[in-house]
Amino acid sequence: MVNKKVFSVSELNAYLKGLIENDRSLKNLWIKGEISNFKAHSSGHRYFVLKDAVSSVRCVMFRSRALRMTFQAQSGMDVILRGYISVYERDGQYQVYVEEIYPAGMGALYLAFEQLKTKLEEEGLFDEGRKREIPFLPRKIGVVTSGDGAAWQDIQKVVFKRFPSAHLVLVPTIVQGDNAPREIVRGIQLLNKAAQVDVIIVGRGGGSLEELWAFNTEIVARAVYSSRMPIISAVGHQTDYTICDFVADKRAATPSQAGEMVVPVQSDLKRLIKIYQTRLQKSVNSKLDLVRQQTAYLRNSAPFVFPERLLRDRMQDLDIEKQNLERNAKGSLREFGNQLAFLTDKINMLSPFTTLARGYAVCRREKDNKVITASREVNEGEKVEVILAQGRLLCRVADNKEGEPGNGRRNRFEF
C-alpha cells in the first residue's frame, strides 16, 4: 500500500470526468429514449431522465439551450437528443448534458404549433364571438408585410384594381427569421397607435413551415388578439394555416384574397348606386303623382268649390244646438226652482219664526239669556225677556206659580 496511489473521492470523480470528456465518441452523442421525471426548474434549467425498456440515464439541459426549444418537452414523450457525457463531480454521477432535443417521429415545429394552438384556444383567443366584422369601405388600410415581397405587390394590385382610390399604409417588416416576430408585432402596434387605419392586413407569401414560423409565435398571436382594429391574416397559400389565422378576425387564403376581402369593387358600387338612384327617383315621382291626384281631388271637392255650403250647414247646426241648449237650460232652471221652493217650505215649517208668527213667544232670563221652559226656573222679581214674532218685551216676574200649560194658571209679569 506504500507505493499505491490513493485517490480521494473528489480526485476519483475528477479523474473519471477527464476520461469521459476526452473520449471523442462521447463528445457529440445522439440518443433516443423516453423522457421521465421531467422538471423545469425556476432557474430555467431542465432536468429529466431518459430511459428505454431496460436502462436510464440522467440528463440536464441548461437555460441557454432550453430557450432555443420550439416545443415544450414533458414526461412520457419519445425524443431524440444531442449532447455530451460528463461527470457531476459532487455526486460522482455521470449524466448527459443536452444541447438539442427533438420529438421522435414528429417534427419539432409541428409539435410546437400544436402545443401553442391548444394553449391559446383554451385561453379563448380563437373564440368566434369576439371576432369583429371587416369594415365595408375602410378609409385607410394598414398592411404589415415585407415591402419587397410578392405579398405586398399582390395586395396593391388587387386593391387598386378593385378600388383605385383606396388608401394603403404599409409598415415594412421582415417576415421570417429570428427577428421577424418582434418586427411583425411592432408593425401591428404602430398601425394601432399612429396610422388611424380602419383594418389591418398581416401576412406574407407562401413557404415552408420554417419560413412561415414567425406567424406561429405566441407574441404575434397576442399582438393580433390585442389589436384595436380588425385584422385579416393572409399568410402563405390556400393550404397553409398558422396560429395568426386562428386568432385574426378574418383569414384570407392568400394575400390576393385579402385584397378582395378588404375593399369592394368600385365599379360595382357605382352601378349599384345608379340602380338605387333610379329606384329612388321612381319612388319619389310615384309619390308626387299620388299627391297631385289627391290634391286635384280635394281641389274639385264640394268644400273647396262651394265653401259657403259648408258654412251654411254648420250655421244651421249651430242654431239647432243653440235651441237645444236654451231648452235644456230652461228645463234645468225650472227643476232647480221647484227643488228650491220645496226646500224653502220645509225650512219654513221648521223655523222658530213661523211658530212665533202663530202667537207663540220665547221667554229667557235677562241675566244669562237662558231660554225658560218652566216657571220654577225664575224667581219673583227677576227680569225676563219675551221674544215675539215682531219685537221683544222686558218684564219683571210678579208671581211664580207652577202649573200645566192650558190649565188656567199663569205666571204674572209686570212690564
Features:
5-stranded parallel β-sheet, alpha/beta, Rossmann fold, 5-stranded mixed barrel, 415 residues, OB fold (Dihydrolipoamide Acetyltransferase, E2P), 12 helices
Summarize the structure.
The chain has 415 residues and is an alpha/beta fold.
Q: How does the SSE layout of this entry go?
A:
Elements: H1 9-21, E1 29-40, E2 46-51, E3 56-61, H2 63-66, E4 78-88, E5 93-103, H3 108-123, E6 141-145, H4 150-162, E7 168-172, H5 180-195, E8 199-204, H6 218-226, E9 231-235, H7 243-247, E10 250-251, H8 255-262, H9 266-299, H10 302-305, H11 307-350, H12 352-357, E11 362-365, E12 383-387, E13 392-399, E14 412-414
Parallel strand pairs: 3-5, 6-7, 6-8, 8-9, 9-10
Antiparallel strand pairs: 1-2, 1-4, 2-3, 4-5, 11-12, 12-13, 13-14
Helix pairs in contact: 4-8, 5-6
